[in-house]
């Protein structure tokens, strides 16, 4: 806008100088009127011309700011063949190239993340495969953690971190002796001391991996309790990272609804009652509520699928026990 008024001012000044000279020499009013009309035409023409020049420049500035914010690929329209059109063509080419590079980089990052996830899953499976009772536990915890995150309105990046954190939360058990890890009865107090070291061992495994830094709290702090009596850091309430609070609730749910050597799987409603009882002591109340909403949506989806099968006269298999339903859902 400043350039537009500067050019217009120069044009007006250029047109005004002859008028001033004529006025000094006593030129007739008719001549002065003609000069005034020419001055007005010059002003309007100057404004229109400068507007045509400055509009593309302003668009270039605006789109350059968008590029600095990571918004690539936008194009500026300008007709004509002059230096301004050359500038807009160059800008459009740069914007296209940046958009192409951005897509390639995103595809590369996604491919790397998939590779990381496969590695993470393999690490988690190395723990789950040792014990038939916990097989699939880490994957279910990861998926349920994501479902809870959706109910809490977390963005996609945080949901992916919840998946990774859930899958990796027990990775520290790789350092537990098999005689303890595979014991078919409740652990003794001494054995529990050893087993309770797995969050710290897991953190030491995950810690050096920069990509996994955001999920480190899920590994180290998933056994912290809302009332501050958990381990290993005895964090309390909001001191516990949200990712750890979510994985804690998902882990507890899966433990309740899975058969273990010392415990039969709980029916769906019984497990809900247990989680409600732990709300405010072990678990974050807001996370427990989000967990219930996620499970209720799953129940509604299963009910809709069953009703759809029945309406289509398809043979409907006998429904699994409630505890199995909860396990299969996640």
Find the structural class using helix and strand composition. Answer: mainly alpha
Element-by-element helix/strand order: HHHHHHHHHHHHH
Stretches where pLDDT is under 50 for at least 5 consecutive residues are 316-330
Strand content: under 5%
Number of domains: 2
Spatial gap, N to C terminus: 59 Å
- Biggest sheet overview: none
- What is the global morphology? elongated
Structure description:
The chain is mainly α. The chain has 2 domains: 2-71; 129-329, Hypothetical protein af1432. Helix content is 68%, strand content 0%. It has 13 helices and no strands. Helix 10 packs antiparallel against helix 11 (268-278). The radius of gyration is 34 Å and the shape is elongated. The relative contact order is 0.07. Mean pLDDT is 78; it is low at 316-330.
What topology emerges from the helices and strands here?
Blueprint: H1 2-24, H2 29-68, H3 83-128, H4 137-151, H5 156-168, H6 178-181, H7 189-195, H8 198-206, H9 216-221, H10 242-256, H11 268-278, H12 285-311, H13 322-329
Helix pairs in contact: 1-2, 2-3, 4-5, 4-10, 4-12, 5-10, 10-11
């Amino acid at each position: 806008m400043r350039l537009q008024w500067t050019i217009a001012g120069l044009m007006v000044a250029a047109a005004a100088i002859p008028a001033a000279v004529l006025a000094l020499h006593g030129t007739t009013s008719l001549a002065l009127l003609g000069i005034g009309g020419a001055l007005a035409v010059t002003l309007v023409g100057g404004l229109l011309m400068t507007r045509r020049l400055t509009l593309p420049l302003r668009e270039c500035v605006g789109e350059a700011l968008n590029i600095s914010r990571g918004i690539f690929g936008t194009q500026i329209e300008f007709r004509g063949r002059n230096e301004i059109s050359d500038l807009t063509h160059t800008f459009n080419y740069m914007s296209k190239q940046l958009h192409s590079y951005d897509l390639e980089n995103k595809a590369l990052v996604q491919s790397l993340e998939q590779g990381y996830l496969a590695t993470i899953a393999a690490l988690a499976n190395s723990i789950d495969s040792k014990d038939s009772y916990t097989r699939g536990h880490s994957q279910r915890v990861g998926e349920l953690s994501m479902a809870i995150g959706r109910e809490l309105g977390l963005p996609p990046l945080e949901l992916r971190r919840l998946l990774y954190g859930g899958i990796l939360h027990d990775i520290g058990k790789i350092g537990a002796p098999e005689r303890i890890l595979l014991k078919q009865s409740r652990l003794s107090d001494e054995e529990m001391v050893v087993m309770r070291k797995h969050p710290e061992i897991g953190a030491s495994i995950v810690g050096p991996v920069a990509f996994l830094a955001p999920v480190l709290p899920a590994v180290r702090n998933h056994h912290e309790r809302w009332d501050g009596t958990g381990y290993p850091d005895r964090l309390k309430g909001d001191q516990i990272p949200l990712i750890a609070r979510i994985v804690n609730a998902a882990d507890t749910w899966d433990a309740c609804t899975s058969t273990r050597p010392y415990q039969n799987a709980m029916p769906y409603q019984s497990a809900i009652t247990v989680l409600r009882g732990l709300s405010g002591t072990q678990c974050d109340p807001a996370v427990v509520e989000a967990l219930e909403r996620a499970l209720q949506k799953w129940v509604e989806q299963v009910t809709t699928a069953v009703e759809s099968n029945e309406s289509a006269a398809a043979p409907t298999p006998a429904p699994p026990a409630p505890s199995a339903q909860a396990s299969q859902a996640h």
